[in-house]
Structure formats: structure tokens, C-alpha cells
Write a structure and sequence with these properties.
163 residues; mainly alpha; 2 domains; 74% helix
């Protein structure tokens, strides 16, 4: 691999990871032939390392950090609102596929299902904030940002298409 590309790829990893594994990883990449699969794997690994950082050399293990964003998103109160937003977006897309963007006389079952999915996120999100805010505020804010993005993504077609 080219040295400039390797330095760019290493830049995507967290600084603590680069201090611990950077030299070894750079040597490994220099010994590899440039391939789209290797490039994809390095980028995927960098994203994973930023979301779920591995514990450093002081513990000699590759266990996940307990309060990383990746660990926190696996908690039910964190991923349920995301799942509900994705399901609500799916309901909107199915409605658009079957009925188009024409306003119907009666809202119908799918509209009520969408409303329940969107409104049902509020108590779960409140519980999530109550449970994790004091223990991991930065990670909680990152998860809330993901949840807000998913919420707005499922709200956007309804708002812009006036459904």
C-alpha cells in the first residue's frame, strides 16, 4: 500500500489505538497488496473502533469498554427507539408504495401505527436518559443524537409530503 494512503487510514482510528497498535498496523498494511476488500475492512474497523473502543494494553485484553457508545447502544432502552423509528419509516414507505402521496379521507391503520410508534418512543427515551445520563453523559448524548436522527428521518417524509 502507498504510505500516504496508510497514514490517512490510520488517522481514522482513535489516538489511543494509534499509540498502542499504530506501528504494527502500519507494518501490516505495508506488507499487504492494495485491495478494495482490505480497504473496506480497515475503514469498517476504524468505525468500529471509534464506536466500541478496545481496552488498551494496560489490561492485555480486547474487551469492549463498558461505557462506550457501541456498548450503550446495545442496551434495550437505547436501541428500541431506533428500531421504532426504522419501523415507522418502513410504515411510511409501504404506505407510499401502495397508496402514493395522495391524501386519503381516513388516516387508516398504517397512519395510526406510525403515530403509535413515534409517540411510544418518548417514555423509552426518557427512561434511557434517566438510567444512563449520570454514568456516561457523553455516550448518552451520542446515542440520543442517533435516536434524534432516526426520529427526524422517519418524520421527514410525513412532513415534506404532507401525509
Amino acid at each position: 500500500m502507498k504510505a500516504a494512503l496508510i497514514h490517512v487510514l490510520l488517522y481514522f482510528y482513535p489516538s489511543t489505538w494509534r499509540r498502542r497498535y499504530g506501528a504494527e498496523f502500519e507494518d501490516l498494511l505495508h506488507s499487504q497488496k492494495m485491495d478494495h476488500r482490505i480497504l473496506f475492512d480497515v475503514i469498517r474497523s476504524a468505525i468500529s473502533e471509534n464506536l466500541c473502543p478496545t481496552v488498551g494494553a494496560e489490561m492485555n485484553s480486547m474487551n469492549l469498554n463498558r461505557y462506550s457508545v457501541g456498548w450503550l447502544i446495545k442496551q434495550p432502552a437505547a436501541f428500541l427507539p431506533l428500531l421504532m423509528s426504522v419501523t415507522a419509516l418502513s410504515v411510511v414507505l409501504v404506505t407510499l408504495a401502495f397508496f402514493g402521496i395522495h391524501r386519503q379521507a381516513d388516516e387508516g391503520t398504517l397512519a395510526h401505527l406510525w403515530q403509535l410508534l413515534m409517540a411510544g418512543q418518548a417514555p423509552i427515551l426518557a427512561f434511557f436518559i434517566f438510567r444512563w445520563w449520570r454514568q456516561a453523559p457523553r455516550q448518552t448524548m451520542a446515542v440520543i443524537a442517533l435516536q434524534a436522527a432516526a426520529f427526524l428521518l422517519s418524520l421527514a417524509p410525513v412532513f415534506f409530503l404532507h401525509l
